[in-house]
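can u pls check wat happens w/ flavin mononucleotide
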Amino acid sequence: MARPDRPAPSAGFFEVLLNQRACRQFDGRPVDDDVLERCLEAAIHAPSAENKQPWVFVVVRDAATRHQIAELTRAAWRDGARSLSEGRLTPELLDDVERGIEIGLESAPVIVVVCGDRSIGHEVVLPSSVFPATQNLLLAANAVGLGSALTTLATLRGTELADLLDLPATARPMAVVPLGWPARQLGPPRRLPLAERVHVDRYGNPWGGSA
Ligand SMILES: Cc1cc2nc3c(=O)[nH]c(=O)nc-3n(C[C@H](O)[C@H](O)[C@H](O)COP(=O)(O)O)c2cc1C
């Protein structure tokens, strides 16, 4: 039997994928529920171990709760994350992250807190099940023109964050994703060439190198 034709690769998909960036400043316009729902639908179509779908998304629109999430993030930043990051991030990235923490996060009209629930999925594979869904959320956001960022700083204050959101004891916050219309265009992401990270047959034989 003839194999059905594969769909042609979609230029739109690769355009979205190759231009996905962390957006940390938003222009203040609201995000409608229907737009948000498309992104969440994309998120829950991710793979997960045993197809348990152990993700839990808390969509935070309430200004006071967004403020408290931003406060927790600032506290984690000031209580050690900043000094750790100083030696690891470029000055430009450090600035951008800091501005995101001080101003951007709270100004996003929506913050999605992504959690993993160990009563649904096995603890060992919770992060590897939850982060593909988070990545789908980021890509879908980019596809509809929203800015987004995968952030984890607030999860250093996971207990307080869980209390704030009334999470059940089995749910652990794993990522905090601000969503909003970007304040500015970010340009293409900077990434290393394939040969720096891809090896053929064995480590040390870079992709694209001569045999
Ligand atoms: C596991 C993980 C944790 C991250 N945590 C934060 C964070 O707490 N705050 C933040 O502003 N960005 C965070 N980021 C975003 C990265 O800084 C960003 O993906 C990276 O610098 C690439 O930048 P680009 O998206 O502009 O290309 C995180 C990304 C990942 C994958």
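The radius of gyration is 19 Å.
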